[in-house]
Amino acid sequence: MSGSRYAPGTHRRPSFRSERFLVPIQSAFRAGTTGRFRVLHFSIQRDHLHLVVEANEPMGFERGVRGLAIRIARLVNRLCGRCGALWADRYHARLLRTPREVRNGLVYVLLNFRKHLRAPPVIDPRSSGPWFDGWCRPPSAPTHPRPVAVPATWLAAIGWLRGGGPIDVNEMPAPTPPPAAAPARRAPRAWASAPRPAPMIARRRTARSRRPDS
Predict the structure, then answer these.
(1) Tens digit of pLDDT per residue, the chain (214 long)?
(2) C-alpha torsion 65→66→67→69, nearest 10
(3) Phi/psi zone of residue 71: left (φ > 0), alpha (ψ -120 to 50 degrees), beta?
(4) Among 8, 15, 197, CA closest to 117
(5) DSSP string of 58-87?
(6) How far, in Å, CA of 76 to CA of 21, rounded?
(7) How many helices (H) and strands (E) does the chain have?
(8) Are 170 and 121 in contact (CB under 8 A)?
(9) CA 121, CA 115: separation in Å to the nearest integer?
(10) pTM over 0.85
C-alpha cells in the first residue's frame, strides 16, 4: 500500500517518520493483521507508506487495506488534533507472482528511504528492516516486539530468495512500477489456493491535510 502526500498549501505537515507516529503506526500494522490479511513488511516515509502484505483472497485484501487505512488515518488525526480525510486518493497495488517480483518488492519497500531521502546504505529504522531475516549481513536482534506478521506463503517466506538471494543494503529500489488494476471480484489463478495466497505490494499515493481553523 503506497501512502499519500499532503496537499499543496497545507500549513501543518507532520512527517510520518517523526518519533510520535512510529509506535502508533506499528501498533496499527499489528492490529490490522488478521487471519485473512497480513502485513509482512513496511516502510514509513515522510508523507506516505509502503507495504508488502498477504491476503487469502481479493476480498480479504480489499477489506484489509481499507481497514488499515482507516485505522492509521484515525490515529494520525488524533495525534495531530485534526479531523477529516487523511488519504487523498486510492492505494496502488501490484500482485507479486514470482520470486524475482517478490524480491524486487522487498527491496523497493525496505530500502525506499534511499530513494526518497538519499539515505546512506543502512537499514531504515522506520521500516520492518530490523526484523527482516533476509539481509546479506543480518543486524542485531531488535529489542522491540515484532510489528509485522510472519509470512504464510512460500514466495514471501523463502521463495523470493530464488529471485536473487539475500538483500544487500547497498541495493537501490527500482523506479516505481506502473500501478496494477484493482483485484477483480472473481479470484484469478494466483488467488485460487487459500493455503498459499499470493503476496501483494501496495502503494497509496497521497495524503491530504486540512488547513487549521482560523
Answers:
(1) 454 444 433 445 678 888 889 999 999 999 999 989 999 999 998 888 899 999 998 899 999 998 998 898 888 888 888 777 777 766 788 899 999 999 999 999 999 998 878 888 999 999 999 999 999 998 898 888 999 999 999 999 999 999 999 999 999 887 655 444 444 443 333 333 233 455 666 555 444 444 444 3
(2) 80
(3) alpha
(4) 15
(5) HHHHHHHHHHHHHHHHHHHHHHHT--S--B
(6) 7
(7) 5, 4
(8) yes
(9) 11
(10) no
Look up residue 19 and give its amino acid. E
Reading the block at residue 77, the C-alpha cell is 488525526
Separation of alpha carbons 29 and 55, rounded Å: 14
Cα torsion 122, 127, 133, 139: sign: positive
Q: In what order do the strands lie in the sheet with 37-44?
A: 37-44, 49-55, 199-204, 91-95
Q: Which residues of 190-199 are buried (b: 16+ CB within 10 A; e: fewer)?
A: bbeeeeebbb
Among 151, 153, 123, residue whose Cα is nearest residue 136: 123
